[in-house]
């Protein structure tokens, strides 16, 4: 993939405007005619240079595990907006408030694009979940246990759909089950579906018919927080490795069948 192909996902109104808003303070501070009017100076102060250096360090550390350029840019813009807010407030409270209103308007009217494409998901209804997992142990399952009323579940839905479309194989399948309708399934897999639960959604990876990984991870006293982004799911479930292993197993199975046909 070329550099320009990697940048193509950023050529959307959300990302372009997000970048412009993030660096708006520094654009205004370096534009002749504007900077003298708004700030009485076109030079960055020493402490602003120090803040920029600190910002660069934070962005590099925060982004060291990001999987794609969209997430990298979104994270960088988030921290740059925080710095810009401080800089605007440093000059005027009204500047700071106007900048915050601009950021809020951006979130409302140009939200981050979500996946709206095809999916490859099996929707389970009660006991058929356990039956399907145990029916063919050669199939690996990644299953989301969700409830319809949870905002986190709703937010994660397009992410899971995108993953299912990109990674689904005959022996790597994606499934979902609404555990508010089937509480016995939630109980079987130790998932708290109460209104204050931090286990919704729960994603479990089943390999050879058994649970091998889940997020979030419940401990004795609390549930460890997990941010259900595409990159986090790919990393925590090692989905790229699982995909390649399943693809290799599928290829080997096809070769064996072809060999059997030749021998017959």
UniProtKB/TrEMBL annotation:
The chain crosses the membrane at residues 97-115. Residues 132-214 form the Thioredoxin domain. Keywords: Membrane, Transmembrane, Transmembrane helix. The keyword Membrane applies. This is Thioredoxin-related transmembrane protein 2-B.
């Amino acid at each position: 993939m070329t550099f320009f192909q990697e940048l193509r996902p950023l050529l959307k109104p959300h990302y372009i405007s997000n970048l412009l808003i993030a660096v708006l303070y520094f654009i205004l501070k370096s534009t002749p005619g504007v900077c003298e009017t708004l700030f009485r100076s076109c030079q960055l102060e020493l402490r602003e240079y120090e803040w920029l250096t600190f910002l660069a360090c934070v962005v590099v550390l925060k982004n060291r595990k990001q999987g794609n350029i969209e997430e990298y840019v979104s994270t960088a813009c988030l921290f740059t907006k925080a710095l810009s807010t401080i800089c605007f407030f440093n000059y005027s409270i009204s500047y700071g408030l106007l900048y915050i209103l601009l950021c809020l308007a951006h979130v409302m009217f140009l939200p981050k694009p979500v996946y709206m494409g095809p999916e490859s998901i099996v929707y389970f209804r009660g006991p058929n979940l356990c039956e399907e997992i145990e029916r063919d142990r050669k199939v690996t399952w990644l299953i989301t246990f969700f409830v319809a009323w949870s905002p986190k579940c709703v937010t994660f839905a397009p992410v899971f759909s995108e993953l299912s479309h990109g990674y689904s194989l005959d022996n790597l399948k994606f499934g979902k089950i609404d555990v508010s309708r089937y509480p016995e399934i939630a109980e079987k897999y130790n998932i708290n579906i109460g209104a204050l639960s931090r286990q919704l959604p729960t994603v479990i990876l089943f390999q050879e018919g058994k649970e091998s990984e889940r997020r979030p991870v419940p401990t004795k006293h609390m549930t460890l927080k997990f941010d259900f982004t595409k990159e986090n799911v790919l990393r925590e479930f090692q989905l790229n490795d699982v995909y390649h292993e399943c693809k290799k197993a599928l290829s080997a199975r096809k070769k064996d069948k072809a060999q059997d046909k030749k021998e017959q």
